[in-house]
Amino acid sequence: MAFDLVVRGDLVLADRVLEGGYIGIEGGTIAAIGQGAPPAAAEVADHRGKLVFPGLVDGHMHTSSSTGWSGIEGASMSAAAGGVTTCVDMPYDVPRPVTDARILAEKIEVVNATSHVDMALYGTIRKDGGVEEIAGLADAGVCSFKLSTYEYDAVRFPRIDHTTMEAAFREIAKTGLMVGIHNEDQEIVEGAIAAARATGRTDPIMHARTRPPLCETMADLAIFEMALETGAHVHIAHSSLARGFDLAEMFRKQGGKTSGEACIQYLCMTEEDLVRLQGFGKCNPPFRTSAEVERMWQSVAEGKVAYVSTDHAPWPREKKVYNGDIFACGAGLTGLQSFAPLMLTLVTDRGYSPTLMASLCAERPAKFHGLFPKKGAIRQGCDADLLVMERGEFRFDAAQIQDRENARWSPYDGMMMKGRVAATYLRGGCIWDGQKVLATPGTGRFVPRQHRETFVG
Q: DSSP of 341-376, one letter per residue?
């Protein structure tokens, strides 16, 4: 029997690269994997000589933190062009975060009507409570929860006090879902910013100086102690420090369900880049030293990093322009369209197999968020979500980002990459042909969490 589609190329599997391989696709799912002469198919996509990865799963991104749900359409176009076939979207939306099943249902409708790629969703709670809504959010399909130890906005992105956080952890523990934490100590940061302003220091490097490593580790210790106390799976949403992964490992050895992810910028960008890029290099936590980047890679080598994400936050360009006060610039980077080319470049430059990228950027985030085995791998029964990478030397051009005009900026603009996204497939359909997005709004669908099993790596 002929398949609907056969995709040919060098398949990046979990444990090896299958050169000259093929994938047989039937009904939008992977039905066969092999090597050599391909089986009969109604259509053959010949990508021989190129790497065929599972579609990437970005476990941490913000479509709607600056523009509201209208941002889903543009960000998902950027994802399609970047080989990201499943986005795990944060709940801190304008004007209402996803704090109950009713709001979640409204957001799901928008995802199903406007997204170009599949999307899983986080839930959260209000600053003044809402713990009683956690079970309903889990039943309605959120893949994970997100809380913060630092406040950006009392409604959209609040700091949750320790008493409320502990109560939330106890309820989340009953669901089996992961709770990611924005891990910065509010008191340390606010005091440091006030001191910097008092001395007139508002230049770019002060963003890093006012968010020192201690502000992360203090937050990490608090949330991990509560993980031990409550039994919840507590996860650092973005560690810029190798020590964060060491702490997660230490608490796991003591019986805790603790983990942490690295955003891709912490594997390559340094304080010097913050000075160079000014507001366009501002994110929280900030870039660290080149020595810390090396320590981060050691954590990768030792298997301590849960997965790698982008923390994509497409602030309008005008919110990123530095006019003498780095504290006034929006905090967040674009990263979806650069994710695959940059990660391939980093693993290639350090001599790793492409399988590391498939693991950290597809399979493991899918497992942590309860989306595996539907998402995250090239294996029979998985959705036929694929990323095709052409190897070579390519310059990343932010002007080509597939999003609204004022989101076409990138900290990686002009950087030479070791590959480009030649094609992206979502459930067997080509949604990016290397030049343009072929998907239409609504091609993507909401993906609920598939099970309640906890995965800590």
A: HHHHHHHHHTT--HHHHHIIIIIHHHHHTT-TTTSS
The predicted structure's pLDDT at residue 1: 67
Cβ neighbors of 436 (< 8 A, separation 6 or more) are none
- E-strand ranges in 278-415 read 308-309, 386-395
Q: Quote helix, strand, coil % in the chain, to nearest 5.
A: 35, 25, 40
- Report whether 344 contacts 419 (CB < 8 A): yes
DSSP H or E stretch at residue 207? helix 205-209
Note the Cα 187 to chain centre separation in Å.
27
Q: Is 346 exposed, middle or buried, given 0-12, 13-18 or 19+ CB atoms closer than 10 A?
A: buried
**Residue 31: Cβ within 10 Å count:** 19
* Span 162-193, pLDDT tens digits: 999 999 999 999 999 999 999 999 999 999 99
| Cα 371 from Cα 350, distance rounded (Å) | 29
- Cα–Cα distance between 428 and 262 in angstroms, integer? 30
Nearest to 448 by CA among 122, 78, 63, 221: 122
Length of the chain: 457
- Kindly report, residue by residue over 373-427, the tens digit of the pLDDT: 999 999 999 999 999 999 999 999 999 999 999 999 999 999 999 999 999 999 9
380 token code pair: 């029979």
In the prediction, which pLDDT does 18 show?
98
How far is 323 from 202, CA to CA, in rounded Å? 10
Secondary structure (3-state) at 259: strand
* Nearest C-alpha neighbor of 375 from the set 60, 86, 53: 86
Angle, CA of 102, 103 and 105, to the nearest 5°:
65
Which pLDDT value is given to residue 14?
Answer: 87
CB neighbours of 109 closer than 8 A, spacing ≥ 6?
Answer: none
Identify whether the C-beta of residue 145 lies closer than 8 Å to the C-beta of residue 172: yes
100 three-class SS: coil
User: Which residues, at least 6 apart from 30, have a Cβ–Cβ distance to it below 8 Å?
Assistant: 23, 24, 378, 379, 380, 381, 382, 383, 384
124 φ/ψ angles, rounded to the nearest 5 degrees: -150, -170
Q: Which two tokens stand for residue 180?
A: 């990611």
DSSP class per residue in 71-136: HHHHHHHHHHHTTEEEEEE-S--SS----SHHHHHHHHHHHHHH-SSEEEEEE--BTTB-GGGHHH
- If you search the block for the tokens 């990123």, which residue do you land on? 320
**Strand 416-426 versus strand 386-395 pairing type:** antiparallel
The contacts of residue 351 (CB under 8 Å, 6+ apart) are none
> pTM of this prediction?
0.97
Say which DSSP state 160 is in. P
* Token pair belonging to 348: 């290639």
**Span 67-90, average pLDDT:** 98
Instruction: State the CB neighbour count (10 A cutoff) for residue 380.
Output: 13
Q: What percent of the chain has pLDDT over 70?
A: 100
